[in-house]
Amino acid sequence: MWRPCFRVLENVDFFARAVRLCGDVRDFLQAQWLHRRILQSGQIKNRYLANLVVEMYGKLGMVEEARGVFDAIVQPNLFSWTIILNAYAQNGFVEAAREIFREMPQRDVVAWNAIVQAHVLDGNLGDARRLFDLMERRDAVSWTIMLAAYSELRDASKSEEIFERMPEWTRSSTNAMLAAYAQTGHSREARSFFIAMPEKDAISWDTLLSAYAYDRYWRAVLATFDRMPQHCEFSCSLLIGAFAQTKRIEEARGLFDRIPAKSVVIESAMLDVYAQSGNLEEAKIFFDGMTQRNVVSWNTVSGAYAQFGYMDLAKVVFEKIPAWSIVSWNVFLQGFSSAGKLDEAMEVFETMPQRNALSWVGAIMAYAQLGHIKRAMQAFEAMPLQNMVSWMIMVVAYAEKGHISEARRLFQTVPRQESLSWSFVVVAYSFIGAGREALEEFYRVDLEGIKLDSVMFCRILHACSHTGLVDEALYFFSVMVERGVAVEQEHYNCIVDILGRAGRLEEAEEVLNSLPSLAPHLAGWQSLLSSCKIQADARRGARAALRVIQSSPGCSSGYSLLANVLKFSSS
Q: What's this model's pTM, rounded to 2 decimal places?
């Protein structure tokens, strides 16, 4: 940790440079020390410097500290208001960002862009679009925010609409439109658009590369990579990651070995390949041999051990991290939570020097998953600013424990329900046993023209499953197919579960038998086997048990469930 000499350079300009650097390197312990030093010097009275301190804390996710500095500014200017707005928005505290926006004495296009971006980051594209339409003046950033938002939502048609309406196109906007094609699986359109672009930069080439990677056109990925004028960290990292996605670990390593100048970013990408594949021994060997490490590489190793349940090893790595970031702490907290070690998770939470929204959500989720509803509620109420995820966790937690009336009451108190994302409402309704309301919400957003992706359809199928709406589930499944939405394993599992619960075992078995034989369908066959037990269908249960055992020979559930099927059918 650096400790600059302030005796000679104790002035506003030097403090300003130090504050900017501290925010960029994401060192929150250094940030607190630096803030104390500025307070001792009396320079915090300088509004320019105070604004930078607010910005620094915002970058570090320390919104309470940011708000404290902002409140102490005697006459906050427009920049002051905008950076505290951004601090809340970028860290997931959208309601607080709304309050700041309403309180602002004046607003420029930067402030409007910030509040629109806040709603985009919160997944509330409806309100983001309404605010965008209310803007009296828009700049290139305004248009690009909405273009990128629809791109993230994988809605190429809405992205095209925004792009065509733009008064002028910049390199950023054309790259954003290219990204929209890339992220929606339209690699051919992406290629045509790329060819027609008047100017191309490294981002353009990287985006085309990602378009081919998204569609798994690996030959095109390699051909594009070879044609690129120059290879940057992102392109090399993306190609290494592309090989990893297809389990081609050796080819990823081969590419890595051919790169002449390996930055810490590229080395971290290769490290992540080993970590995500579960090859922890190779990951550790690679990590030990890295020429340089940053907080990302340390977090990758610690997180890999935590992900696969080796919390003792995760703790050893965590304690060796030279400078902990808030991400380091959150990874460690999540590791204990996932491993079911509640006491250790809470000990980590209590000892965290600083917490952001993710830290609080991790603590609430840890309590909720283990059924400690009262302690979850205590953490929820202690959270400085509840976000939508924390509300969702508590609603679901009460519903899963059978406290439906309490779940309904809590859901009705969620602030600004008219602004909730539709997916939150659907999931909440399904868990509190209000399937019809969930379907009404689906119809409403469909009429509004919001494009529904595979994740959204999965949520509505889960809603149908929890409330026994069989015909409705089959209808929505057919809508998915008709609209060309990617049908994934989870969707089939939902349909099998719904049919099984309704006693329509023959149809459930037909669904599973229609799937590609090479794909693993363990969860689906286990679901059918459980339904066979309830319906005492021994013959079908035996077939399902055989498929469970074939899919996972070491899984004992197939044998035990089959025994129960035979027991119930004989009685």
A: 0.49
